[in-house]
Specification:
The protein is of the alpha/beta class and about 750 residues long. Helix content is about 45%, strand content about 15%. The protein is built from 29 helices and 23 strands. The model is unreliable at about 70-75, about 280-295 and about 725-745 (pLDDT under 50). The structure holds cytidine-5'-diphosphate. The site of cytidine-5'-diphosphate has 16 residues, from helix 6 and helix 7. It comes from Quillaja saponaria. It catalyses: ATP + H2O = ADP + phosphate + H(+). It is an enzyme of class 3 (hydrolase).
């Protein structure tokens, strides 16, 4: 430590020397001073050797190159390297003790699964170990993250730690995909989605020596697709290295999948986290600044708005915020304590300075695809043990912390160990489109870590056929032109279809606005506070309610908001009980979509509106048709009885219109509706509902799958069958839907 103190003193001198050097060059310093400077520089050089001896390590190739004390010696870089080593010693991150062993493992094996507690230093240090060790000389080291905010903040952190340590462009972050990204930096953090898009344009991953898949326990769809694709690439590219990293992943399953590769454990964490179970509020934390976390975007916003404590500042953190809004949680708020209300966006990878307490509700609101009904259902459910551990890990990043769990220890023990992989939870349309675009014909045989059930793959393909994105040619599924467009858009296929169909139907900007308001639908109308406040909000909503349904209502809100001058927007939102932030978010989504359409598909979205909420025109019809054709699997019919509500055409399930639906204020319930989502809370509700005429149903090509036998009235069954034309239905059903064919013939 004496050497370190000496070195740091010398470093300070060195800083001053920098200034002297400049003066020398300007010939303003006498020779005697020059001599002094040179003497100091020599002292500095020998001190450098001391520190290397002290660290008891052979200098890495990189270090030897840098410390070659001649020619154009890079003082600044040397300074940074020393400072980084000093920080490492100060931080004492557990992973440092394993540096040599990890590097050896990676040298000898193509794939390694690295498991280490949160805070052990995996995400920030491994990339630097690899870069320092000279892996893949001029190639990039990629580290993927499931979320943008994590990728950006890690790149910032590692950039700070190692700035100027590497010659080629140091540390970068690609948070959104662009085909113009240059892989010429030593370390690149990116979202797994970005890397997947990159793979599609360069299947050999040229210029990349090493790929680290971080937070592998989340098993996002993109991660799973990447793992499967990398598995086959590894066999062709023998010098490529893959490291799969997590605190809580199922290491054995991943190792088995990757040819039984080695599993490496990093033991220990930076700071301890004291976990307490407080299922009842009475036993809860007495500290007034500690507030339970909430589970959905809207609740986060609501909690922030309701939170009052003069000594604290309440901040929201969820996926619908812009990057700038999200980054507010990283800022200091001098003299104030930060209270952050977050969704599971904050669950992994993040280090938020100063967070000492985490309050874990134990819940998550998740969209889950239900293969039996074929719908995406939003549900509040228990998290997994792995998520609970990750949440606790957010405390204790920069100092010892504490986690309050609003459930009992036995609740924790009864949680599933790991969350279900996304591929098992979501509509597979996006995955199937991507797999087909990758040129893989046999989707059913794609080698996933966890293969989705054949039934959900079948339903995804059926939905894509319905959307006109995929067709069956000679028993091989192929993307249509529309399908290729949808892949490029990379959003949920039915929303992509909505946008593209509006464009093709020569409507104005309605398509992109619909996509944006659908993504924010549950947050646009404010409905919080006392019962009286809620009634007031409901009354204010009536002025926007459109007889065609919720999507048209949302369109008219956006249209009116957009037309206002910027300075009046907030006041208008306040007066009409509209969430101003959601409106701005819609605007951002629209911009993002417009850019994507422009650059990926060459579609220029018009800036005008074709549709007018106050006048019935042909555009109402075209819009309804577009909505129906994009959501055609979600058709429901009124049963004629309030108690029974609507019947979902595909499954015969009885559901109700959501109480917030604008259709409810128009008295008579429409006979036919198409809905965006089935919301399952106390009962099952239809949300984002649009009314349509039965005639438009029959114009759909291909016709939607329809379990006619579920329609109670025989008359209606006949009407529907004749409307579709049985032959069409038969052709569409094909051999894989013999059950439906049977139903048709029985009818
Ligand atoms: O990936 P893992 O959870 O193992 O750790 P990491 O993200 O590499 O972070 C290790 C430690 O670095 C954290 O516990 C923090 O002390 C520090 N860190 C930080 O202060 N700021 C960041 N943006 C990232 C990490």
């Amino acid at each position: 430590s004496q050497e370190i103190t000496n070195v740091s003193r010398l470093l300070e001198t060195h800083n001053k020397l920098g200034a002297f050097n400049e003066l020398c060059e300007k010939k303003k310093v006498r020779d005697a001073e020059k001599e002094l400077i040179e003497k100091r520089i020599n002292e500095f050089r020998s001190a450098m050797n001391c520190i290397l001896n002290f660290l008891d390590e052979k200098p890495t190739e990189e270090a030897v190159r840098v410390f070659k004390l001649d020619g154009d010696f890079n003082w600044k870089r040397m300074f940074k390297l020393i400072m980084r080593e000093r920080h490492r010693l100060d931080d004492g991150l557990p992973i440092y003790a394993y540096r040599q062993d990890i590097l050896l493992q990676i040298l000898y094996q193509q794939v390694v699964v690295l498991i280490g507690e949160t805070g052990s230093g995996k995400s920030t240090q491994l990339v630097q170990f690899l870069a320092d060790s000279g892996v893949g000389a001029n190639e990039s080291i990629i580290c993927t993250q499931p979320r943008k905010i994590a990728a950006i903040s890690l790149a910032d952190r590692v950039g700070d730690e190692s700035s100027d340590c590497y010659e080629d462009g140091s540390v970068k972050c690609f948070s959104t995909y662009s085909s113009s990204h240059q892989f010429n930096s030593k370390i690149i953090y990116m979202t797994d989605y970005c890397l997947l898009q990159h793979y599609m344009s360069d299947k050999n991953m040229s210029g990349i020596s090493c790929i680290i898949i971080d937070e592998a326990h989340e098993r996002s769809l993109n991660t799973d697709l990447l793992l499967a694709l990398l598995k086959s690439l590894l066999c062709q590219k023998l010098d490529l290295r893959l490291i799969i990293m997590s605190a809580t992943a199922n290491a054995i399953q991943l190792s088995d999948y990757f040819f039984k590769c080695g599993i490496f454990h990093v033991v220990g964490r930076n700071f301890p986290v004291d976990v307490r179970y407080v299922p009842y509020l009475a036993e809860g934390p007495s500290d007034s600044a500690v507030v339970p976390s909430y589970v959905s975007d809207m609740e986060v916003e609501w909690a922030c708005a309701m939170f009052e404590a003069p000594s604290a500042v309440a901040l929201a953190l969820h996926g619908k915020l812009s990057s700038e809004e999200q980054f507010r949680v990283f800022q200091n708020h001098p003299g104030k304590r930060k209270v952050i209300f977050a969704t599971n966006l904050a669950e992994t990878s993040l280090t938020i300075p100063g967070v000492k307490y985490v309050i874990d509700s134990g819940m998550v609101k998740e969209s889950k695809f239900d293969p039996s009904s074929g719908m995406n259902i939003l549900k509040v459910c228990w998290i997994s043990q792995s998520s609970a551990d990750q949440r606790a890990g957010r405390a204790g990043r920069t100092e010892p912390g504490r986690c309050y769990r609003l459930y009992t220890e036995s609740d924790y023990k009864s949680m599933v160990p790991n969350q279900e992989p996304e591929i098992r939870r979501v509509h597979l349309g996006v995955a199937v489109l991507r797999i087909l675009a990758l040129g893989i014909k046999n989707v059913q045989d794609f080698d996933f870590v966890d293969a989705p059930s054949p039934r959900s793959v079948e339903m995804a393909i059926r939905n894509l056929i319905q959307l006109g994105a995929v067709e069956l040619n000679n028993n091989i599924y192929e993307l249509t032109e529309e399908g290729r467009y949808l892949v490029k858009l990379g959003i949920e296929p039915r929303i992509g279809k909505l946008v593209i169909s509006c464009y093709n139907a020569c409507l104005g900007k309605e398509g992109v606005v619909l996509a944006a308001v659908m993504a924010n639908a549950s947050n646009i109308f404010c409905r919080v506070g006392s019962d009286g406040d809620k009634v007031k909000s409901d009354c204010l909503k009536v002025q926007f309610c459109h007889c065609n349904g919720d999507l048209f209502t949302l369109l008219s809100v956006y249209k009116e908001w957009e037309a206002l001058p910027r300075e009046r927007k907030n006041k208008w939102c306040w007066e009409n009980s509209i969430n101003a932030k959601s409106m701005r978010r819609c605007q951002d989504t629209i911009l993002e979509l417009e850019n994507c359409l422009k650059y990926e598909l060459n579609f220029i979205i018009p800036s005008y509106w074709a549709w007018n909420p106050h006048k019935y025109t042909e555009h109402d019809k075209s819009l309804k048709k577009v909505i129906l054709s994009s959501l055609a699997e979600n058709v429901a019919m009124y049963s004629g009885y309030d108690r029974l509500g609507y019947e979902v055409a595909l499954t015969g399930q009885h559901v109700q219109l959501h109480p917030s639906s604008s259709l409810l204020i128009f008295g008579k319930k429409p006979n036919w509706v198409v809905f965006g989502e089935l919301l399952s809370i106390s009962s099952q509700y239809l949300v984002c509902v649009t009314a349509f005429d039965i005639e438009s149903l029959f114009t759909l090509r291909p016709p939607p799958l329809f379990d006619v036998s579920k329609l109670e009235s025989k008359k209606l069954q006949r009407r529907v069958l004749s409307g579709f034309g049985c032959t069409l239905l038969k052709r569409f059903c094909g051999k894989s839907n013999s059950n439906l064919l049977g139903l048709v013939s029985r009818v």
